[in-house]
Amino acid sequence: MNARAGRLEIRELVKHYGGDGPAAVAGIDLTIDPGEFITLLGPSGSGKTTTLNMIAGFVPPTSGSILLGGTDLTGLQPHKRGFGMVFQNYALFPHMSVFDNVAYPLRQRGKSKAEIRKLVLDIVERFGLAGLERRRPAQLSGGQQQRVALARALVFSPPVLLLDEPLGALDRKLRAQLQLELKKLHQEVGLTFVFVTHDQDEAMYLSDRIAVFDEGRIDGMGRPAELYDDPGTLFVANFLGEANTFAGRFADPRTYAWNDEKWRTGEGDHPAEAVLVVRPERTRVFAPGEVPPGWNSVGAIVTDVSRLGPTSRIDLAFPDGRAGAAVLPSTDAVQVRVGDDVRAAWDLPSQAFVTP
Amino acid sequence: MRRAPLLWIVVCSVAALLTVPTLFLIPMSLTGGSTFQFPPPSWSLRWYRNLVEDRGWRDAVMVSLQVAVLSTPMAVAIGTGAAFGLMRLGARLRLIGAGALSAPLVIPNILIALAIYGMFLQMGLSGTILGLVLGQTALAVPFVLIAVLARLQGYDRNLTAAALSLGATPATVFRTVTFPLVLPGIVAGGVFAFVASFDELVIALLLQSPRTVTLPVQMFNAVVEAADPTISAASTVLVVVVSAVILVAQIGWTRRSEKRSGSGA
């Protein structure tokens, strides 16, 4: 399983299903380096799955192109692309044994019987499926089926592995376990992984880079931590985790005004029209008058305090009636009660400006 | 494993209700007398001998087999093709199409028979084997269509996508994935089509000529004219053939699945 691929390039990709509706995919540009784990993240209907299906060749794009290592694949039929793909429900062939499922892509490539046997038994062993070769998919657990699907998609050494919400159907515990396996697998095989999910935690955990989809466009793109700390747009801020958002305006380049509050802004440029966002875990709660100097703060009423173990969550109502939250170490949270009048505060590095 | 006794009683009662009247045929066909007296006064195979030696009965069995053997593959081909075609339509058109093709199930057979009779008379198909085959094919298509359509609706299209992504051409995908998974529906439809054709009476009655008397028509005529226990023997043959077809299909299928799951590496 060696990466022999070049970079995967997607240029101005558009898919319009006809009719008067908006484009399902409205112009996507994406360059994926060999060996990268990239996640297409977005709510349902955002165009992430359509994009994956265009890469796989199942959906013909209305315009735009897809290139692998400089070769244009756009018009190529799916069976000639040679990409591995894992489906949400695994799509294992129910009438074939594990062995025959994994051997399927090798048979299509006209490998000799001995070679097929060796390759299949090798990968089956590697995925911890040894001894199950004769079983049918229905006789396997969800986790085993998942591994068969991965083995089948990798056994022919594809340059790129496409994964369409492959963990979507699993319960939480198994899901966490398979996320770990998937991450290890990616590090071992060094293939390009294009992963589709609507689960932001999964995306943050697995990816080298995340492309956040909204209404057929990529709204934000970057390494998980960067994208989380500096989301760029309000949509990304809200989709990738939780955010306290304040839609005010710049009174002058160094002062942001919201409601009756005046806040300092950090160094650097900000978009002219901007929304201030602060993550709950970077929001602290103080009694009025105790806010540390140099911090920005806003009046709030505590609406709920819930202890989640090591952290506690304090739900807040801001003066404009909107809800927000602060997540604190539980040791700090005990002093706050429901109904308290408090100041929610944050230091300058904790705030970010995003476009609405 | 113990099951609820009440369930057993219900199951056995229903099974008895459905099969016992048919089972009475067998002793009656083995009677030595010439009436339908039960229990038979003596035992004999004379009515079976009559069935084989009497030209009318022998020919009727042959005609029925011939017609069923010809119309079954036609119904299978048309019904399967229609099912695949309907799957490519939108949900609404599919419903309309499936409804239209299943009409023979709902429309009284006598109406269909009259329509076919009128048309075939003009076309010179009345009284021919071809005419019988065509008429019974039309009646048998819905059985195949419904069985295959049910199978196709349960077919996960991701399987096709998966096979394509693994490098199989569309033709190979059909041969190795789609067709094997739909095959049970085709076989079941074929069995029903065969049975439907083999014991069909109304169309065969209207299209009959001296050369195209099917077994059900011969039985009908025998009852109308003068019933003797040959009809019990004929009925027994009919029941045995039909049951054998279904049983063989079922056993064959079970064997095949067992063998398949045992293979692999």
UniProtKB/TrEMBL annotation, chain A:
<dbReference type="InterPro" id="IPR027417">
    <property type="entry name" value="P-loop_NTPase"/>
</dbReference>
<feature type="domain" description="ABC transporter">
    <location>
        <begin position="8"/>
        <end position="240"/>
    </location>
</feature>
<dbReference type="InterPro" id="IPR003593">
    <property type="entry name" value="AAA+_ATPase"/>
</dbReference>
<keyword id="KW-0813">Transport</keyword>
<dbReference type="InterPro" id="IPR013611">
    <property type="entry name" value="Transp-assoc_OB_typ2"/>
</dbReference>
<dbReference type="GO" id="GO:0015418">
    <property type="term" value="F:ABC-type quaternary ammonium compound transporting activity"/>
</dbReference>
<dbReference type="GO" id="GO:0043190">
    <property type="term" value="C:ATP-binding cassette (ABC) transporter complex"/>
</dbReference>
<keyword id="KW-0067">ATP-binding</keyword>
<protein>
    <recommendedName>
        <fullName>ABC-type quaternary amine transporter</fullName>
        <ecNumber>7.6.2.9</ecNumber>
    </recommendedName>
</protein>
<keyword id="KW-0547">Nucleotide-binding</keyword>
<dbReference type="InterPro" id="IPR017871">
    <property type="entry name" value="ABC_transporter-like_CS"/>
</dbReference>
<dbReference type="Pfam" id="PF00005">
    <property type="entry name" value="ABC_tran"/>
</dbReference>
<dbReference type="InterPro" id="IPR003439">
    <property type="entry name" value="ABC_transporter-like_ATP-bd"/>
</dbReference>
<dbReference type="InterPro" id="IPR008995">
    <property type="entry name" value="Mo/tungstate-bd_C_term_dom"/>
</dbReference>
<dbReference type="GO" id="GO:0016887">
    <property type="term" value="F:ATP hydrolysis activity"/>
</dbReference>
<dbReference type="InterPro" id="IPR050093">
    <property type="entry name" value="ABC_SmlMolc_Importer"/>
</dbReference>
<dbReference type="Pfam" id="PF08402">
    <property type="entry name" value="TOBE_2"/>
</dbReference>
<dbReference type="GO" id="GO:0005524">
    <property type="term" value="F:ATP binding"/>
</dbReference>
TrEMBL record, chain B:
<keyword id="KW-0472">Membrane</keyword>
<dbReference type="Pfam" id="PF00528">
    <property type="entry name" value="BPD_transp_1"/>
</dbReference>
<keyword id="KW-0812">Transmembrane</keyword>
<dbReference type="InterPro" id="IPR000515">
    <property type="entry name" value="MetI-like"/>
</dbReference>
<dbReference type="GO" id="GO:0055085">
    <property type="term" value="P:transmembrane transport"/>
</dbReference>
<keyword id="KW-1133">Transmembrane helix</keyword>
<dbReference type="GO" id="GO:0005886">
    <property type="term" value="C:plasma membrane"/>
</dbReference>
<keyword id="KW-1003">Cell membrane</keyword>
<feature type="transmembrane region" description="Helical">
    <location>
        <begin position="61"/>
        <end position="86"/>
    </location>
</feature>
<feature type="domain" description="ABC transmembrane type-1">
    <location>
        <begin position="61"/>
        <end position="249"/>
    </location>
</feature>
<feature type="transmembrane region" description="Helical">
    <location>
        <begin position="129"/>
        <end position="152"/>
    </location>
</feature>
<feature type="transmembrane region" description="Helical">
    <location>
        <begin position="173"/>
        <end position="198"/>
    </location>
</feature>
<protein>
    <submittedName>
        <fullName>Putative spermidine/putrescine transport system permease protein</fullName>
    </submittedName>
</protein>
<feature type="transmembrane region" description="Helical">
    <location>
        <begin position="93"/>
        <end position="117"/>
    </location>
</feature>
<feature type="transmembrane region" description="Helical">
    <location>
        <begin position="231"/>
        <end position="253"/>
    </location>
</feature>
<keyword id="KW-0997">Cell inner membrane</keyword>
<keyword id="KW-0813">Transport</keyword>
<comment type="similarity">
    <text>Belongs to the binding-protein-dependent transport system permease family.</text>
</comment>
<dbReference type="InterPro" id="IPR035906">
    <property type="entry name" value="MetI-like_sf"/>
</dbReference>
